[in-house]
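Dig into what follows:
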Amino acid sequence: MKVSGIPMQYRVRQLNALALLLAVAYALAAIKYTQSVTQISPWIRDIFVYATSIGVYRIIIDVIFRIVERTTFFRRLYWGQLHIAGLWSYSYTIEGAPERTVYFGVWRFEQTLFATSVVGFGLTDEFDTRSHVRSVTDVISNGNAYEVINVRSDSVNSEAEVFSRTTMFFEQSSARFFKQPDRMRGKTFVYGGPLTGRICNNTFVRHVKARTEQDVIDELRHNLNEHGHVHGAVVRVVAS
C-alpha cells in the first residue's frame, strides 16, 4: 500500500532508522563513559558496548512501534494522507438498475503499522442489520485508486458467503495540516451468488466524531428523518 506515492515499507524503514539513530547515540555515550573508567580493559569495554547497544536498539524499536501503533496522533502521522482508520458510512446505487434505489450501511477501517482491514454491515430501511462484510486482503494500491477484497454474508442466510472487490478513490479533507480522506467514491463488483456481476456505485463518508457503530447509525437515522437521505439527494431508501 502506498502513502502519497511512497511505499508503506519506507515508513517502516523510517521507524527503524530512528531506532538505530538512538541506539548509535547510546553507543557513543557508552563508549565515552567506559573510556573514563580505566579499570575496564578495552576488549571488555567493546564487548559491553556492543552487547548493550543491541539490547537498547531492540528496546527502542519495540517502544517506538508500540507508541505509534497505540497512539492515534502518531498513527495519523505515520499513515499520512492514507489514514482511514475509523468509522465510515456508505451508500450506493446499482449500476444499470431502472430505479435509483439507495442502499447504505457502516464500515469500520482498522489500521496497524503494516495493514488495513475492514469490518462492516449493511442496514435495512428500519436500521436492522441485513448483511455483514469483512476484508480478506489488505487495502491494495492500484494506480490512483485503492482496492480491497471482502467476503459478505446476508443475515437471512449467514452460511452463504460471496466475494466482492471495492475500488476506492480518496478525497482529501480541506484541513491545512494533517490532511486525511474524509470522503471516498468508487465501485464494488460482486462475485458469486445470485448477485454475481452486480456493480455498485459507492460513496463513503467519514464520521470523525463517532466512537461506535451506533453513533453512525443514529446520525444516518437523523439525516434520513430530517433530509430524506444519508449522503445526497435520493429517490428512495430501502434495505441494503
Remarks:
- Confidence is low (pLDDT under 50) at residues 1-6, 233-240.
- Residues 42-70 form the longest helix (29 residues).
- Helices lie at 8-35, 42-70, 72-79, 213-227.
